[in-house]
Design goal:
Elements: E1 9-13, H1 18-47, H2 51-65, E2 87-91, E3 97-101, E4 109-113, E5 122-124, E6 129-131, H3 135-151, E7 156-160, H4 179-190, E8 194-198, E9 213-217, H5 220-227, E10 238-242, H6 248-258, E11 262-269, E12 283-289, E13 296-304, H7 308-319, E14 324-332, H8 338-347, E15 353-357, H9 364-367, E16 372-375, H10 378-389, H11 395-398, H12 401-408
Parallel strand pairs: 1-4, 4-7, 7-8, 8-9, 10-11, 10-13, 13-14, 14-15, 15-16
Antiparallel strand pairs: 2-3, 5-6, 11-12
Length: about 400
């Protein structure tokens, strides 16, 4: 093994966020190695040197930059990047959390991964206890790591939270809290520099940040790539339908790129009703603006909770003559009895496929469903982190229209 590259980039995964962090880390490792191989190949060609000599010179220069004794590895090879920082998490009997970072992170750019919507049982090695954590538990666990990282001297701290917590509490109706904004301000106060998230429920939340950078990535390319294997995207029978007024801009993006007509479902809701499972809904009536009769329908939304609203919308579209219905979901929460409800709706023929990302963890209970397709956004996050690490522009990843057009026009 040669010298360790990218020694200033560290990744910490909180309990519940390990699977996504591991997937992103795997992509990061490949991206860094590929980038170095390309660069050494280009330099070898430019200066007329053997590639092996360029690698040795790179290793030699890197050794001088590290204040430690000379490594024992081969000077002719790159070391496999090891980004993971070991952290010991403890959950006490009263529900309190403690995070202890087990190696030096002074001077590092730290990325802390957390999946606040992971509601599967999690085992804590210290106590051997297994617990199902709530969103608030996950947040408290995340904040203990942030404080530990600040105290340990990390240069920058970036939170990687695909599901932004409390994102649906982004506007005030009466005497209620703007909790989405409160979370961002709390992170600012604690010393967080940046938050990476996925298809945030409302972009208005970004306006609440003063010093923190809230980066909102989009899963549209990954979802569209899966969709094109199911239906011809240039089919005249394809219609994009917004499931409600709040998702119009999201679905207009798909309609504009696919050059397909856009329809919308208008729902009248009773907001005094709080849904707890897919059998409940606060929708009083649904109206369609557009035509879906005999058409294939694609609907996109940022998150799927209990699923009751989406199932009701799909049933209404089938009643109006829709042929095949496909849905794209960025954050598949599937809370309550949502999986069972979608099993029933699929058996009734209400829809064909649900395409959702791996931004929220699920096990084989959902992943093996015939109607479910998982679209990975791990490489997207890895590419974003790599660009941040090299101080490169992230605009091509945030504004992904060009890569979508390459998909549609290869």
């Amino acid at each position: 093994m040669g010298i360790q590259i990218s020694s200033k980039l560290g990744i910490i995964s909180c309990p519940g966020g390990e699977v996504f962090a591991r997937s992103v880390t795997d992509h990061l490792t490949r991206l860094f190695k590929r980038d170095l191989e390309r660069k050494t190949g280009d330099l070898a060609k430019k200066y007329g040197l053997p590639r092996e000599e360029v690698v040795r010179k790179f290793n030699l220069n890197s050794e001088f930059e590290v204040r430690q004794r000379v490594s024992k590895g081969s000077p002719d090879e790159y070391a496999v990047p090891r980004f993971n920082i070991p952290v010991e998490f403890t959950r006490f009997a009263n529900g309190e959390f403690k995070a202890t970072i087990k190696s030096s992170i002074r001077g590092m750019d730290l990325y802390i991964f957390q999946d606040v919507e992971n509601h599967y049982p999690i085992t804590f090695p210290n106590s051997g206890e297994t617990a199902v954590l709530s969103v608030n538990d996950h947040l408290m666990c995340l904040l203990t790591v942030v404080d530990a990282a600040v105290q340990a001297g990390a240069t920058t701290i970036t939170l990687v939270v695909p599901a932004y917590p409390y994102s649906r509490q982004h506007k005030r109706k009466g005497r209620e809290a703007l909790t989405a904004a409160w979370f961002a301000r709390m992170c600012e106060f604690m010393g967080v520099d940046r938050i990476l998230t996925l298809d945030i429920h409302s972009t208005e939340i970004q306006n609440s940040c003063k010093t923190i950078a809230l980066e909102n990535m989009h899963a549209s390319y990954q979802i569209m790539k899966k969709l094109c294997s199911l239906v011809h995207l240039e089919d005249n029978d394809l219609v994009i339908v917004s499931p409600d007024t709040g998702a119009v801009n999201r679905n207009k993006f798909y309609a504009d790129n696919l050059k397909r007509p856009l329809a919308m479902l208008y729902k009248e809701r009773d907001y005094s009703v709080v849904t707890k499972n897919a059998g409940q809904s606060n929708i009083k009536s649904i109206r369609l603006l557009g035509d879906v009769e005999g058409k294939n329908v694609f609907m996109a939304d940022d998150m799927l909770g209990t699923g009751g609203t989406l199932i009701k919308a799909m049933r209404r579209l089938k009643e109006m003559g829709a042929k095949n219905i496909f849905c794209g979901i960025s954050l598949p929460l599937f809370t309550g009895n949502a999986i069972e409800a979608f099993d029933e709706a699929y058996a009734e023929g209400c829809f064909c496929k649900i395409i959702a990302t791996n931004g929220v963890f699920h096990d084989e209970t959902l992943l093996k469903k015939e109607w479910y397709i998982s679209a990975s956004v791990s490489e997207l996050f890895a590419q974003f982190i790599m660009r941040l690490h090299y101080n490169e522009s992230t605009s091509p990843l945030l504004e992904n229209i060009k890569i979508i057009q390459k998909l549609l026009n290869p």
